[in-house]
Write a structure and sequence with these properties.
The protein is an all-beta fold. Helix content is 0%, strand content 50%. The chain has 1 helix and 87 strands. The strands form 22 sheets. Strands 1, 4, 5, 7, 8 and 10 form a 6-stranded antiparallel β-sheet that branches. Strands 27, 28, 29, 30, 31 and 33 form a 6-stranded antiparallel β-sheet that branches. A 5-stranded antiparallel β-sheet has the order 2-3-11-6-9, with no helix packed on it.
């Protein structure tokens, strides 16, 4: 089923007819016995039709009922009644949901590929709080396989509200309309809804609007995701360099860090961990030490220790020292420098309570962890956000627990300084000496900011205003479909909680027919750390989560808003905004995730950033007290060039403000000798506007040169007249120099009021290959990744080459293929080599194993099958065999009570690959799977990308074997094992046996004639396919839920430009009936 787009105001055909004329009971005259005429049935209480005062469906005729907007309706109204205990119950048009009821109407038959518009009126009638209704259009009688859904909130009783739902039918067939009341009933309260004027008409297919990204919005990485309880996820720091640092986890478990240089536009990325647990809770956080070196911290989600690395050099993410660790199953790193020590605030793995560990040597080692905040029992988990003031104190906001587990989840505040806890007004709560004196939530020790009176809460951010008073952002949930954002500010005497906006429901893209496991995952909020009156947030607009900037002039009483994103495609989200800590206005004002997000372990999003100063630079010239234009940088007669902008020499300059109302023009800098104002810019083309004039003096002889070229010549202006001069300039050396002078008269005085520089077209300034050096085996291919800055370029503009093609070759897309052992340097270049970067490739020799080999999976000490090779959870790939990644593997031995040799095994919840180097040939593979204590279900096995064993399971105490044949043509066998969910998320593997049963023609120890290749991968538009000398019969594309999206016959490439970013499965069928499968990434 395709994902459709939803817009209002669809244009219907002039001759369109209503396809459901009887579904609102028009034409019926009976009192109840004719309920089956239009096929409208209820799931509540087992009823299909009842009288007026009972549960079920009925109808009535109404006269002049008000419609929102002022019109009225007269006609037939269809009614349905819910009781409070039936929240989530449904009624369906076109199908009965109850026992033994048949209908004459059934669903409505629609044509695939055609567009339809479903419209009507609905009325909240009585006996309930304001409800929220969900309309569902699906191609399944039970409401599964949803085509489109839309939520409507109500406010006034007995007033009709129009609804309109546009959709495209994905295929020919019957369709059904379902209505759910998902909130608004409490206890025994009832609710009655009325539907009228129902129409379903064919309409024109709408062209999706062009997605809007506010100027200055760019992507920092195409593959990155984060959680919101570990910070700073992004950090601005100006030392010898001026950079913003950020980090994330990719869809396939890479922990990556990046730096963006604001002077050069260079982006550097470093992968600090490959193949880590795939989970958005695992993103890294940053701290710049006093010596400028970068401390990066991350952990798994209930998985392993806290991991801390320190960069080898200041302000440089390219290399790090050894990893320091502490704790186990810890989560949420929040590091702070307090004096000479570094405090790590995090969640403990055994109690799940907020805790601290302290390092006295810059993060190289850590002291014993201590509980900071506690509940009355373990596994009750407060969620915490932190910020620091100028005195080193830590302001903390936290919740009672998880909103999924706490019906009255409150939001609290405490101030922590010098080992003491304080309230916001400075009242001492208690001293802190360690775990025994942790702040006790259940004893009522912390200060309550929000008491859950409007529904359970969840904290999102904390920051400080200009007086260092705390500001807290939190969400409140009267129900899971309405996430209300609040702004709580301490005014010096009390907390003021102000409503911002209802952001809609949860943002994860719940698969059709499934319940959302995290219904309190809001789109998210973040306070501007430089201006606490500014909040960036994610909210639903037309069913899609968009990023908005909200500002309050009165501490949250009223709000103004501005869209950063609009008209985002329906299958994408914009969520979890964050303002980089210490950011400079106009530079990385906000960052967020954009893409697809199903669960915290199934996602593919990009990290976006909004940096308006990259597009427009505005300089307002005047004195230190003159009013500054919005968005402008102040320039006075003392502003010397500071590596970004300024006068080269300020001698003889004067700053003046005529103090008139036209603030943009009446302040200026003047001089008599020529002066040069310099601005560093990326290379490219810019439109430059200079304003000159005063309220007190007539000017003449005003002249300006831009990088040596005269752009203004001998201009003059009268008193009170301001002249504006605009010109384009091409920057090729990273600098704009304006020489301002007076060529004659008027004591040679020149003035400048303002300078506006607008980006017209940027050029590529540099190129980085993400991989500095890689090590592969002689049978491997590896895809190199690159980034150009400050803008992207077409892949075909990049030239790739190898220093030694006898060692490794590289194709036009950066795919490196090993040839023989040794080293080679791979180069990527632009503009004939004037822009270049390189990667060192080391090719290692392999040693193929014998024609018959057995691997016994288990612990390092469990019994070993005679003649077998022991494999535990630490056996990384060597020249002959091993795991390509060992993170997340666990070795188990059930002991003598279990049967031998099946008692020991390896298991994991992550997809893992085990590789064996073999001579080319035909092999019979046998695998054994089982566990004496647990059932493992929904497992799968891929051999060299081909899905040979799918969806197999083993009951507790039952051991199963899989057998299949594999043809090895490139001297390696890659076995990928994974679990697709079900009752247990772990796969289990006991034994692997490999026996050669046939040979290939030619030399078995060379690469065979058949090699399955996809390139480039990740792919932007065209994906090329090669399976050697085999012919391709057909190519199929599937999403991660197994739904076929595309089938193409007799092709060697697939155009993926029309598909969303994400992970897909590609299956290639050859004419000789081989099937090759591989994951691909669309970016």
């Amino acid at each position: 089923m395709l994902i459709m787009f939803l817009w209002v105001l669809a244009t219907t055909f002039s001759n369109a007819q209503n396809l459901i004329p009887n579904w609102d009971a028009n034409g019926l005259t009976g009192t109840g016995s004719e309920a089956n005429k239009w096929g409208f049935a209820a799931s509540t209480g087992g009823t299909d039709w009842q009288q007026a005062n009972q549960l079920g469906v009925r109808y009535r005729d109404v006269t002049n009922v008000t419609i929102e907007g002022g019109e009225t309706f007269t006609g037939r109204e269809f009614l349905y009644r819910w009781e409070g205990s039936y929240i989530g119950s449904t009624m369906s048009l076109g199908v009965p949901l109850n026992q033994g009821v048949t209908t004459e109407q059934g669903g409505i038959t629609l044509e695939g590929g055609k567009a339809y518009n479903f419209t009507g009126l609905f009325e909240w009638i009585n006996n309930a709080n304001p409800p929220t209704y969900e309309f569902v259009i699906s191609d399944a009688p039970d409401g599964g396989n949803r085509v489109v859904t839309k939520l409507y909130n109500t406010s006034a009783k007995e007033v009709y509200k129009p609804f309109e739902i546009y959709f495209v039918a994905p295929s020919n067939g019957e369709y059904y309309i379902q209505l759910k009341q998902i909130s608004g009933l409490n206890g025994s309260q009832g609710g009655l809804i009325g539907l009228a004027n129902l129409n379903l008409e064919e309409t024109e297919i709408l062209t999706p609007p062009t997605p809007y990204l506010k100027a200055g919005t760019k992507s920092l990485t195409v593959d990155g995701t984060w959680c919101w309880f570990q910070d700073p996820r992004a950090l601005y720091y100006k030392g010898k360099k001026e950079q913003t640092y950020s980090g994330w986890i990719t869809h396939d478990g890479k922990i990556q860090v990046a730096s963006y240089n604001h002077i050069t536009g260079e982006v550097k990325k470093t992968t600090i961990k490959e193949g880590f647990q795939v989970d958005d809770h695992n993103n890294p956080t940053f701290l710049i030490r006093n010596d400028g070196r970068i401390m990066v911290s991350y952990s798994g989600h209930f998985f392993g220790p806290m991991r801390v690395l320190v960069s080898d050099n200041p302000e440089d993410i390219s290399s790090f020292g050894p990893e320091a660790t502490f704790g186990n199953s810890v989560t949420y790193a929040n590091p702070y420098q307090i004096g000479e020590d570094i405090y790590m605030f995090y969640r403990d793995g055994s109690t799940w309570h907020p805790s601290i560990a302290i390092s006295t040597d810059g993060g190289l080692s850590w002291g014993a962890p201590q509980t900071l905040i506690k509940r009355d029992a373990a596994q009750k988990r407060p969620y915490v956000k932190y910020t620091q003031d100028s005195q080193g104190g830590i302001h903390i906001t936290f919740t009672t627990g998880h909103p999924r587990q706490e019906a009255a989840n409150k939001v609290y505040y405490v101030y922590f300084k010098d080992d003491k806890f304080y309230k916001a007004d400075g009242t001492l709560i208690k001293d802190y000496t360690g775990t025994s004196s942790a702040l006790d939530i259940d004893a009522g020790e912390p200060e309550v900011v929000y008491d859950a009176s409007n529904g359970k809460g969840w904290t999102w951010d904390i920051a400080l205003d200009e007086n260092e008073n705390p500001v807290i952002l939190y969400a409140a949930f009267p129900d899971d479909y309405n996430h209300h954002y609040y702004y709580a500010k301490w005014d010096g005497t009390q907390w003021n909680n102000r409503h911002i906006v209802n952001s809609g429901k949860w943002f994860p893209q719940t698969p059709s027919g499934q319940n959302e496991p995290e219904p309190n995952y809001s789109g998210g909020m973040s306070v501007d750390t430089n201006d606490a009156s500014t909040v960036y947030l994610s909210k639903q607009v037309n069913g899609v989560f968009e990023i908005y900037k909200y500002q309050t002039p009165d501490e949250g009483i009223t709000w103004n808003s501005e869209a950063i994103t609009k008209d985002t495609p329906i299958d994408m989200v914009n969520v979890r905004p964050v303002v980089p800590r210490n950011h400079k206005p106009g530079v990385f004002d906000v960052m967020w995730m954009r893409g697809q997000y199903i669960t915290y372990q199934n996602y593919y999003t990009s990290i976006m950033y909004y940096s308006p100063a990259d597009e427009v630079k505005y300089y307002d010239f005047g004195n230190d007290s003159s009013e500054l234009d919005t968005g402008a940088f102040r320039v006075t007669n003392q502003t010397l060039f500071n590596e970004e902008y300024g006068f080269v020499n300020t001698t003889g300059l004067t700053a003046t403000d005529d103090f008139q109302t036209n603030k943009a023009q009446t302040d200026y800098v003047e001089g008599t000798s020529p002066a040069i104002f310099k601005v560093n810019l990326f290379n490219g083309t810019y439109t430059v506007t200079v304003v000159q004039g005063t309220n007190t003096t007539a000017l003449s002889g005003q002249s300006i040169k831009a990088n040596g070229t005269t752009v203004v010549t001998n201009e003059s202006s009268n008193v009170g007249e301001w002249k504006s001069y605009t010109f384009d300039i091409n920057i090729i050396n990273g600098t704009l120099e304006l020489e301002i002078s007076n060529s004659n008269g008027n004591n040679n005085v020149w003035v400048i009021n303002s300078l506006l520089i607008e980006t017209k077209q940027l050029n590529v300034n540099g190129l980085n290959i993400e991989e500095d050096n890689i090590s592969i085996y002689e049978v491997d291919d590896v895809q190199l990744h690159y980034a150009t800055y400050p803008i992207s370029t077409n892949p075909e503009d990049i030239s790739w080459s190898s220093s030694n093609e006898n060692i490794a070759v590289v194709d036009a897309n950066g795919l490196v293929t090993a040839v023989s052992p040794g080293t080679a340097t791979i180069y990527a270049s632009l503009n004939g080599g004037s822009i270049e970067d390189s990667c060192l490739v080391t090719v290692n020799a392999i040693v193929t194993l014998s024609d018959e080999v057995t691997f016994d999976f288990g612990t390092a000490t469990s019994p070993l099958i005679a003649g077998a090779i022991r494999i535990d959870d630490t056996n990384e790939l060597n020249a002959s065999y091993g795991w390509t990644d060992t993170s997340g593997l666990y070795a188990r031995d059930r002991g003598s009570s279990a049967s031998y040799p099946d008692r020991d095994f390896i298991l994991s919840s992550l997809d893992k690959e085990f590789r064996v180097f073999l001579d080319n040939g035909i092999y019979h593979i046998t695998t054994t799977h089982g566990d004496s204590q647990y059932t493992h279900d929904n497992m799968f096995l891929l051999a060299n990308g081909e899905n040979l064993v799918n969806d197999f399971s083993c009951e507790s105490g039952i051991y199963i074997t899989n057998e299949f044949d594999v043809t090895i043509t490139n001297r390696k066998l890659d076995l990928l094992i994974g679990d697709q969910g079900g009752g247990d998320v772990n796969w289990v593997w006991n034994i692997l046996r490999i026996v050669k049963t046939g040979t290939l023609s030619g030399n078995d120890k060379t690469k065979g004639a058949v090699e399955f290749k996809l390139f480039p991968n990740p792919v932007n538009n065209i994906l090329n396919i090669s399976i050697g000398n085999k012919d391709i019969d057909k190519v199929e594309l599937y999403d991660m839920l197994g739904k076929k999206l595309l089938e193409v016959k007799n092709t060697k490439f697939v155009n993926l430009s029309g598909f969303s970013n994400g992970v897909y499965i590609l299956k290639i069928h050859s004419n000789d009936k081989h099937v090759f499968s591989k994951y691909i990434v669309k970016k």
